[in-house]
Amino acid sequence: MLSKLEIVRKFWDHFDQANFKAASSLMHEHAIVWEPNTREVFRSRDAFIHMHEANPLPWRIEEIDMLSEMKEGIIVTVVKAYSDQTPENYFITSFFTFAGESKIIEIIEYWGKNNEIPVWRKGQNFSEKY
Predict the structure, then answer these.
(1) Dihedral sign for Cα atoms in the order 113, 109, 93, 16
(2) Residue 27 pairs with which residues in a beta bridge?
(3) How far is 70 from 67, CA to CA, in rounded Å?
């Protein structure tokens, strides 16, 4: 049996390959996915997966940090989503909760756009660009 961390890593690998059917097999059929940035909730695994299948851009997923299991079995991840067809890319911080030991029952995803330094801060010597 895979650990929760291995299940989440496999989930992101499937998303990287746009193999949404395989990703859905790691989710409970009644899984709920919250996306607070857009104030959306997907009330089923199928709704969430269909949304990704309908996306016109082929997104890739790059693992940034796969944190260990937190309290109550929650797995936290940070990945980068990008596409060769657009300059936009995002950092996604996700919290995965499980039903039992083997199926994802809830995901909360926070998307952060990878932006340039705001104009008002440029030249102020508050930070340096990396």
Answers:
(1) negative
(2) 104
(3) 8
The answer to whether the CB of 35 falls within 8 A of the CB of 107 is no
Distance of alpha carbon 110 from alpha carbon 81, whole angstroms: 12
Q: In whole angstroms, how far apart are CA 96 and each of 50, 106, 120?
A: 19, 6, 36
Distance of CA 8 to the CA centre of its chain: 10
Query: Which structure tokens are listed for 15?
Result: 């998303």
Note the pLDDT tens digit of each residue in 33-71: 999 999 999 999 999 999 999 999 899 999 888 777 777
pTM listed for this prediction: 0.89
Question: What would the pLDDT profile of 94-110 be if each residue is shown by its tens digit?
Answer: 999 999 889 999 999 99
SS3 labels along 62-100: EEEEEEEECHHHCEEEEEEEEECCEEEEEEEEEEEEEEC
Would the pLDDT of 18 be above 90? yes
